[in-house]
Amino acid sequence: MVKNSIGYLVVIGLLFLGLAWNIKSVQAENFVGIRSLSSSSANNFTYQSPEGDVSLALTAGAIKTDLTFRLTHLVERDRVYRYFTYPEGRVPASDLYSIRYTPETAGNFDQTPVVTLKYDSDSQYKEAYYYNWSELRFEKLESERDPLAKTLTFSLPDKKKVIFALFSEPEIAGKASWYVHYKYPGELVAASRDFAEDTKLRVTNLENDKFVVVTVKDYGPKECKDWTEEEQKKMGPCQDRVIDLSKTAFQVLAEAWEGVINVKVSIVEQILE
After folding, report:
1. pLDDT at site 273
2. DSSP strand pairing (211-218 vs 171-179)
3. Integer Cα distance of 63 and 121 in angstroms
4. Of the candidates 217, 222, 212, which has an alpha carbon nearest to the alpha carbon of residue 252?
5. Which of these three, 139, 169, 199, is where a domain ends?
6. What is the pTM of this model?
């Protein structure tokens, strides 16, 4: 509680100092973007930080009143611990950013701003969080992942100020199926959209607690929204999966005829630490 209260005072100070920065001359790790927006504008609006690590988008007609926003880099990821308590079991995967609006009121939007944050490809699964000042803790935001562009996109809460960042998750949960990899027949391998090639993962069947350690060797599985009509007809109803296992690995967890099972996925290095 004390750390979070101190964090609040430090953040307010950082935001105040940020007003004096020249946004045309700052570097990517220290920037302040200030823009005025009109509620009557018929154009979509986007703002991108100097190096493109963070961007903000608003659709035309999304705001209820004229306002000014200030998007600010607050703290580098390795210094966040000085001001805030991390979500349990998680560590920052991006720097900490803030957006504030003038007038400083909530409820300014019919459709809240959308933020896109880039992340490093370091074999860590990442989620977006914002700081809930009422609860004095970070809370997870629903986000859309683009593993090829290495970005997370999410809508901000409709509040007068929002602090946000990406955090690495200790594990993910979802569905898994199996396939046969022509290069690695009979080996314990997997396809993942979220973890880099050669990452070692522990996959646990949530129904029976059996687990297997696999190595990522492929990109996938394809998301349901990307299936073609032909694939739907051939494969049947799609179930979004977080990982696909080789048939050999799947059979450690369940019978092949089961097809799809519920699993949790953890990075082996995190388990051993």
Report:
1. 44
2. unpaired
3. 35
4. 212
5. 169
6. 0.72
